[in-house]
Design a protein that fits this description.
The complex is a heterodimer of chains A (about 90) and B (about 425).
Chain A (H helix, E strand, L loop, with lengths): L1 E4 L3 E4 L4 E5 L12 H9 L7 E7 L7 E7 L5 E6 H6 L5
Antiparallel strand pairs in A: 1-2, 3-4, 4-5, 5-6
Chain B lengths: L5 H9 L17 E7 L3 H14 L4 E4 L15 E2 L6 H21 L10 E5 L2 H16 L5 E4 H7 L15 E5 L3 E2 L2 H14 L3 E3 L4 E7 L2 E7 L2 E10 L5 H7 L7 E13 L7 E4 L4 E5 L4 E12 L7 H14 L8 E12 L5 E4 L5 E5 L5 H18 L33
Classes of the chains: A alpha+beta (about 90), B alpha/beta (about 425).
Chain lengths: ~90, ~425
Amino acid sequence: MLISCPHCGPRDLAEFSYQGDATRTRPEPASTDTKAWHDYVYTRPNPAGPHHEYWQHAGGCRAHLLIVRDTLSHEIHSVALARSANASGARA
Amino acid sequence: MAEYSALSLLKNALTGNCDWKPAWRKPDPKPAYDVIIVGGGGHGLATACYLAAEHGITNVAVLEKGWLGSGNIGRNTTIVRSNYLLPESIRFYDFSVKLWENLSHELNYNVMFSQRGVLNLAHNPAQADAYIRRGNAMRHGGGDADWLTREQIARKVPGLDLSGTARFPVVGGLLQKRAGTARHDAVAWGYARGADRRGVDIIENCEVTGFLRDGDRIIGVSTSRGDIRAKKVGVAVAGSTSRVLNLAGIGQFPIESHVLQAFVSEALKPFVDCVVTFGGGHLYMSQSDKGGLVFGGSLDYYNSYAQRGNLPTVEDVMSEICAMFPSVARLRLLRSWGGVMDMSMDGAPIITKGPLPGMYLNCGWCYGGFKATPASGYSFAWTIAKDEPHAINAPYTLSRFERGAAIDETGHGPTPKLH
């Protein structure tokens, strides 16, 4: 699996660290809604198909990335810097 | 029905092995059953077998999407052990080892359970302390555990690099003598035959495509071979848990599916006679009866439903086995493969009634499901038959996460890739 880092170009999977599902929304820190916290901490959609996920280019520029990758084929559909992707509302 | 004996082996050898009978029937699905088990892997087949044998519930169907044993029961590293720390785990897995010890006899099918021992190597004093603590917990729970010094390990496993100059010098190891390996395919076949001969219908190439509902209640499944109704539907589909629960309208669940790779080398003369695990990284290996070294390491560390992995993990696992046994560096690999693991949020399984009325769930095995097969089937069958958990699976609820009662053996928290 090659991941095309926006800063560094296509790099080997070994340089990246997986940070998991990117679709979870953290409740407001002051929230006491235990169901919302439970869902945030413990449950995942775990789709078979396109998966929005965070990676970090830990062995390179150290940027956090938002990647859409197919969990059935490992095909990578898109790679974006997590900061700008989240700012532009591109998150799923 | 296939029966095996020295006499039948001899007779069939003389007649060219043309007269063997299938070990289980290929029935068409009936319109309705008392119980449907979705998933014809080890756990599903064991559940069906124990439903019939222990609870007299024989009007049962096991629905399998592919062919029997095509999932993780046919693609694991065959290790059976109960060297756990937490009381819930010790109780459950010791129960499983006890079932394993009698399984060939119970099924009248040789599952080749070989209690060759599992040796966990420790490479520094802190790791040694942790293993000794675990060994004490195992003994306290009624199991067996022995601490071996480096000299004892040198005599037991001659090929290991025990030199002081090793990258991860060995300081000792925890041995569980009752642990070992089993013939994984035979477990599936043995349970399948045991269930079939008691009247259970094993229906292969029958994919569940939806659930039949009466309000909230699950009253059956729609499949690629038509609708089938049942009073109770058990789901034991490992890495496909989220996909199947999606069909029942459950979109979020405390499971992530990850890929785990395993490897077999070319065959060697007898080289190592127990299971050895490497504590400097994560590697477990044993030698099969055919002579190949069977081994695996960690997950690939990303969500996946593909039954194949990537090369960085392969490289990592190979470097570990070479650090442990320098003499295997020139061995060639014969096969490698990947399986989809149902990684739970605390590393422990879920065996419970629910989450919907009429449904029963068995999942979250991470990559330790093989050794659990008998206890999983036994306790899941109990839960389905009696509508309440057996003592060994009572802690493994789905609600434990919201109650703050996670059973986190490794202390990694809700990070499924690390369990």
